[in-house]
Design brief:
Radius of gyration of chain A: 12 Å
Largest interface: A-B, 7 and 14 residues
Shape of chain B: globular
Strand order of the largest sheet of chain B: 13-12-9-10-11-14
Order of helices and strands of chain A: EEEEHHHE
Order of helices and strands of chain B: EHEEHEHHHHEHEEHEEEEHEEHHEH
Number of helices of chain B: 12
Distance between the termini of chain A: 4 Å
Helix content of chain B: 25-40%
CATH class of chain A: Mainly Alpha
Structural class of chain A: alpha+beta
Oligomer: heterodimer
Number of strands of chain B: 14
Number of domains of chain A: 1
CATH class of the domain at 4-114 and 331-345 in chain B: Alpha Beta
CATH topology of chain A: Arc Repressor Mutant, subunit A
Largest sheet of chain B: 6 strands, antiparallel
Distance between the termini of chain B: 32 Å
Strand content of chain B: 25-35%
Radius of gyration of chain B: 20 Å
Shape of chain A: globular
Strand content of chain A: 15-25%
Largest sheet of chain A: 3 strands, antiparallel
Helix content of chain A: 40-55%
Number of helices of chain A: 3
Strand order of the largest sheet of chain A: 2-3-4
Number of strands of chain A: 5
CATH architecture of chain A: Orthogonal Bundle
CATH architecture of the domain at 4-114 and 331-345 in chain B: 3-Layer(aba) Sandwich
């Protein structure tokens, strides 16, 4: 899983796709996940990082994470 | 060496809700370091805002509507030329281009340069010729047909699914969801722009545009891709952002190199969900959002003037991505004396 080339992620969570002109706003958690993907982390590594930072059980995290990743895919922000 | 003094006449000063390209074209020329331009505005309507904007035009003259024919236009242009010694004219309306193209050699003989598409290039990209154009140049275009009467259109609509786009010959387009709506738009558009009225498949997707300049020999001098971010009820972009869409730029290069397009142009495109690009229209002139190209690093109006003056022009190879334009309206306060001078004397 890779963030598409050229996707710009700013500190305030604003994401711009320069190929399509689409822009999005992410909250801090969304931004953190997208940056972890951009940093080349696997889903397993991302889960471990998030579980250590947030008070959340694994099943709930899985659900939210899958949901978020499919949104990223739908909006053409990541490649498989 | 100082900037070259030049006198350029520009039309399209109607900076209204369906804006003409004159004002942003002039802004681009005025930012040029190569030219020190005196700008002569050519106006059809007394209330075209560009006439009254501070620091924009040095002088404005009224010119006859395209419906008066090219001879009336030529006569008026010669009156203006006698007084202003024009070096170049940049026409910016689709509806006037036919006359200016026809007058090109006569104007040139008087020392007035233009840089316009040939009559063949102008004719073959007409909305009504788009299917043939798509076939000839191997590009995706929506199914479309021309209607010369209401009965004609009703017949055509039998092979279309709703919604359909009903488009005027030069400008304006409406989405129709029924035959009744299509008939209403047909009457409106034919009364305003004449015949034919074009019926076109509605293609769902994102509206994206390219502004480009061809040198007439197959080379692209300038090309900038933009995605519309805010679209008015007239279908005009009120905000847009430059994008790095290679497919759009490749398509532009393909069209310009194959057609040897001369002059400014705008490709109106739709990108569908399955990532296909369809050409909706090819506008044979600089579009009203040209100042975004200038702001992104490609001064297309300046390059157009250089081409017209026979100067060497190196093609632009890149532009800033993520530059936006946001249009706004602004109320100017103008003394009625200026308006009355224009109305009574035809110049200001």
């Amino acid at each position: 899983m890779k963030v598409k080339e050229n996707i710009a992620i700013s500190d305030n969570g604003f994401v711009f796709n320069p190929t399509t002109g689409d822009s999005f706003t992410l909250n801090n958690t969304g931004k953190e996940i997208l940056l972890l993907i951009k940093g080349g982390k696997s889903m397993g590594e991302i889960k471990t990082t998030l579980l250590s930072s947030y008070d959340m059980d694994e099943t709930t995290l899985d659900r939210y994470l899958l949901d978020f990743v499919s949104e990223l895919r739908f909006n053409n922000l990541i490649d498989e | 060496m100082g900037a070259q003094k030049i006198t350029i006449a520009v039309t399209g000063l109607n900076n209204i809700d369906s804006p003409g390209p004159g004002v942003p074209v002039i802004r681009g020329i005025k930012e040029s370091k190569i030219f020190d331009a005196r700008i002569i505005g050519l106006a059809y309507e007394h209330l075209e805002p560009g006439i009254y904007m501070e620091g924009l035009v040095d002088k404005t003259y009224m010119i006859p509507y395209p419906s008066k024919g090219k001879d009336a236009l030529y006569e008026r242009l010669m009156e203006i030329h006698q007084r202003e010694k024009l070096d170049m004219i940049i026409p910016n309306f689709d509806a006037e281009l036919f006359s200016f193209i026809k007058l090109e050699s006569a104007l040139n003989a008087q020392g007035i340069k233009t840089f316009l598409p040939t009559l063949e290039q102008f004719e073959e990209r007409h909305k009504s010729n788009l299917p043939a154009y798509g076939k000839k140049y191997g590009v995706n275009v929506p199914k479309s047909q021309e209607a010369f009467s209401l009965a004609d259109m009703q017949n055509i609509l039998k092979s279309y699914e709703y919604p359909v786009m009903v488009k005027g010959k030069f400008y304006d387009a409406y989405k129709a969801y029924s035959i009744e709506q299509a008939a209403e738009y047909f009457s409106k558009l034919s009364a305003k722009w004449g015949f034919p009225v074009i019926v076109q498949d509605f293609i769902e997707g994102t509206e994206v545009n390219v502004i480009a300049l061809g040198d007439g020999k197959g080379k692209v001098i300038s090309a900038v891709a933009m995605r519309k971010q805010y679209i008015t009820d007239k279908g005009k972009a009120w905000g847009g952002v430059t994008i790095a869409d290679e497919a759009m730029l490749e398509l532009t290069h393909k069209i310009i190199s194959q057609t040897k397009w001369k002059g400014g142009m705008e490709l109106e495109l739709i990108r569908t969900k399955d990532n296909k690009l369809y050409i909706l229209e090819i506008n044979p002139r600089i579009p009203a959002w040209v100042y975004l190209a200038v702001g992104a690093g490609q001064n297309l109006p300046e390059a157009l003037v250089k081409l017209a003056m026979g100067m060497n022009v190196s093609p632009y190879t890149d532009y800033k991505i993520g530059r936006m334009f946001i249009r706004y309206s602004w109320d100017m306060i103008v003394d009625i004396d200026r308006f009355s001078k224009l109305v009574t004397t035809g110049e200001l």
